[in-house]
Amino acid sequence: MDLLMIVLFFMIGTIFGSFYHVIGYRLPKGESLIKPAHSYCPNCKKQLKWYELIPVFSYLIQKGKCRNCKQNISIFYPVIEIITGSLFAVSYYSFGISYELGIALTLVSLFSIVIVSDLTYLMIPDEVTFFCAILILIFQFLNLGIKGGIFQLGSGILTFSVMYLIMLFGNFLFKKESLGGADVKLMLISGFVLHPILGLFVIFLASSIALPISLVLYLTNKEHIIPFGPFIVASILFFFLLKIDLNSFLNLLKFLMLH
Ligand SMILES: [Zn+2]
Questions:
Q1: Cα–ligand 1 centroid distance for 44 (angstroms)
Q2: pTM for the full model?
Q3: Is the peptide bond before 36 cis (omega within 30 degrees of 0)?
Q4: In 10 A of CB 237, how many CB atoms?
């Protein structure tokens, strides 16, 4: 595997990451993504120069402060850039140049945008979810052919429908919203990417990661609303990047039950 290409994918990923931060931050507020075309300091609105926009480096050189008003810049910016860059590199390492790489990069992009928008506003823009869903489906058809593509399409409809029914049942049972509608829409993507059984298992994996974290947050600062979207996408990514298919998953389950 070409190390130079992995580094290149990391660098491209950090640039995309800073763009995804803009999408996740502006889109839920109804702000335009292209106007203003330039990036600006959220505090003093001063337009940023090109050398203030280099992913990660600018943040480090400016010691995390705006050059104009000295306001602290959110650590979120470099964190999202590094996450996106690292996952771009891992995606290339896993798949090389292929249709599967297209699926992986779309999932990583969704992950970064969902982290920003769900953590900032507790919502995920529908446009982003559906755009990524369609893109992934196209890659699946190109990769698997008509038959395989139709299987993944059906898989997505199945995982979405099951989660939708569970949501309706939960709302009826608890007389309030138990599961976010945006999270249910993410399950469409789960089924498009994975075998429907794995696609549904994503919800259990996401819950078992999110539950201890929300418990700790609840005990430490009484904060008990944590966004669930990032955990769902992280779980889909986990299965896809590690190439865990239904067979290896069932073998793993058997192994765990016997030990
Ligand atoms: Zn400023």
A1: 4
A2: 0.91
A3: yes
A4: 20
> Residue 211 C-alpha to ligand 1 middle, in angstroms?
37
Task: Give the distance (Å) from ligand 1 centre to CA of residue 45.
Answer: 6
Local confidence pLDDT in tens for the 259 residues of the chain: 689 999 999 999 999 999 999 899 888 888 877 766 667 787 888 888 888 888 888 888 888 898 888 888 888 889 999 999 999 999 999 999 999 999 999 999 999 999 999 988 988 999 999 999 999 999 999 999 999 999 999 999 999 999 999 888 888 887 766 677 899 999 999 999 999 999 999 999 998 998 888 888 777 776 667 788 999 999 999 999 999 989 999 998 888 888 7
Distance from the alpha carbon of residue 108 to the mean position of ligand 1, in angstroms: 30
Residue 169 CA: distances (Å) to CA of 34, 114, 226, 227: 41, 26, 21, 21
**CA 93, CA 2: separation in Å to the nearest integer?**
9
How many helices (H) and strands (E) would you count in the chain? Answer: 9, 0
Tell me the CA–centroid distance for residue 65 and ligand 1, in Å. Answer: 8
Q: 72 C-alpha to center of ligand 1: Å?
A: 8
Ligand 1 centroid distance, CA of 30 (Å) = 22
What's the 119 CA to ligand 1 centre distance in angstroms?
22
Q: How far is the CA of 182 from the centre of ligand 1 (A)?
A: 33
CA gap 138, 143 in Å, rounded: 9
Where do the domains of the chain lie?
1-97, 122-259
